[in-house]
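Per your request, structure below.
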């Protein structure tokens, strides 16, 4: 690594490490008047929740589950009230903003004017308070050790010290990202905290470390490709994390989800499933309807679109270019514009509450036709078709035996896209289906936003995960065809 690149690396590493020590104003107002107002407001919430609970118990019209939920709500409001009372007891009367340092847990120096009730309050919201400091200290140690190894490594020795440094740096970045996802931003997500400042610090830590790592890799290998690999790796991690969090939250309780993000699965999967099952969320019905519509429409769309593209490519007839231009024009028309007309057409055909209304029209897929035609422009030699004709092969047999094997990568690519689009389609089934037995999974997931699921976040995430999981499986099963299909199906220059 050259001296210049080493300096760039150390500068951005210093920015990242500095962000961990950067003080953040908590904007904690400890004035007596402010605390009294907050306590009075919270006391009103407690009284209201208790009154509602007493009304439900005395009325005898609510189920045991509803009463238990209300009891939990009462307890939560009481916990918040107690936190304010503890804060009032420890308040100094100083209305100035206190300072919070990420790397200083426990007893803090008096000169920093840290309000210990802030820490206590945060512990109330997050039982894993120590996990934060463990991760932040581990990330700090990894960054420092990585920087030391880079300083010690010579320009020619890139086999050991630089390798160890890269490994430590990656660990530090992953820990830093975990802290941001777990708590919102560096250095600590405090009640009444300044979110904008915390976000700025998070960008300093994570952004500075990533830029430093990129400079490190490029300096060692002296290639832009290495830096591209680094960024692509992190982009991939960032893309996967939301799906992983969704799956993890499906195994956690609603209370745990409200406390923060976790990358480790919980033990409430069975409970969340029982909640879904008890609230008319019939997974088998939704899955069957979605599968029939998605795979039925995908098969028709892919096969007949491939046949149409083959016709545009092979057959020279009057109006070929005009009809292809019409296909291109259809791509430019948003589906929402034709929604009303489509519904009226299906109504006149008596296909309302009929799966065929979502399967048969998929034959006319203009975007798929365009993709297949561009693929054939790059990969089909007309001599193959002529040779098949000379050998006495019919047109349909030529298409099925010769053309389809050539188009397998493109058909797999568009098949994945079609399955995803049809599986996630919500608006069109909502317009056509009123029969509860025809509801698709997206329609059922939308119903999870109702009152009966409002506090059951774990069940909501479980429903979302069950909707997305089949698509993930299909994607990974056919993903090897995507790169080939997209590359070979590009517009020919």
């Amino acid at each position: 690594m050259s001296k210049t690149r080493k300096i760039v690396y150390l500068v951005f590493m210093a920015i990242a490490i500095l962000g961990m020590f950067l003080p953040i104003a908590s904007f904690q107002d400890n004035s007596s008047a402010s605390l009294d107002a907050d306590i009075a407001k919270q006391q009103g919430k407690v009284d209201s929740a208790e009154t509602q609970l007493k009304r439900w118990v005395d009325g005898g019209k609510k189920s045991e589950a509803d009463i238990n939920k209300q009891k939990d709500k009462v307890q939560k409001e009481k916990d918040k009230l107690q936190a304010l009372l503890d804060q009032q007891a420890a308040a100094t009367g100083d209305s100035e903003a206190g300072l919070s340092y990420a790397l200083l847990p426990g007893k803090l120096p008096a000169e920093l004017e840290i309000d210990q009730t802030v820490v206590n309050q945060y512990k109330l919201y997050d039982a894993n308070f120590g996990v934060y400091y463990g991760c932040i200290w581990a990330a700090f140690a990894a960054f420092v050790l990585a920087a030391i190894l880079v300083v010690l490594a010579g320009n020619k020795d890139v086999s050991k010290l630089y390798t160890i440094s890269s490994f430590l740096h990656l660990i530090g970045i992953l820990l830093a990202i975990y802290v941001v996802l777990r708590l919102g931003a560096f250095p600590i997500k405090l009640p009444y905290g300044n979110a904008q400042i915390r976000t700025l610090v998070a960008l300093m830590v994570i952004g500075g470390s990533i830029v430093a790592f990129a400079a490190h890799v490029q300096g060692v290998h002296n290639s832009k490709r290495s830096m591209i690999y680094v960024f692509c790796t992190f982009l991939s991690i960032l893309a996967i994390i939301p799906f992983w969090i969704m799956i993890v939250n499906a195994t956690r309780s609603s209370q745990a989800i409200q406390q923060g993000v976790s990358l480790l699965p919980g033990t409430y999967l069975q409970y969340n499933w029982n909640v879904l099952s008890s609230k008319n969320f019939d997974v088998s019905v939704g899955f069957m309807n979605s599968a029939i519509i998605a795979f039925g429409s995908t098969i028709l769309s892919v096969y007949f679109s491939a046949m149409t593209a083959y016709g545009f490519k092979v057959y020279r007839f009057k109006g070929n270019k005009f009809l292809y231009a019409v296909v291109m024009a259809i791509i430019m028309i948003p589906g929402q514009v034709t929604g009303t007309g489509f519904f009226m057409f299906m109504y006149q055909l008596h296909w309302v509450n009929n799966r065929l209304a979502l399967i048969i029209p998929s034959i006319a897929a203009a975007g798929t036709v365009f993709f297949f035609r561009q693929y054939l422009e790059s990969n089909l030699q007309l001599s193959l078709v002529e040779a098949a004709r000379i050998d006495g092969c019919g047109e349909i047999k030529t298409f099925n035996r010769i053309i389809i094997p050539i188009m397998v990568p493109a058909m797999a690519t568009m098949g994945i896209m079609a399955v995803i689009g049809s599986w996630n389609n919500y608006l069109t089934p909502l317009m056509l289906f009123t029969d509860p037995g025809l509801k698709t999974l997206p329609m059922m997931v939308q119903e999870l936003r109702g009152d009966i699921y409002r506090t059951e976040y774990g069940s909501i995430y479980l429903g979302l995960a069950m909707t997305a999981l089949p698509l993930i499986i299909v994607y990974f099963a056919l993903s090897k065809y995507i790169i080939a299909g997209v590359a070979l199906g590009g517009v020919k220059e």
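The mean pLDDT is 76.

Regards,
D.
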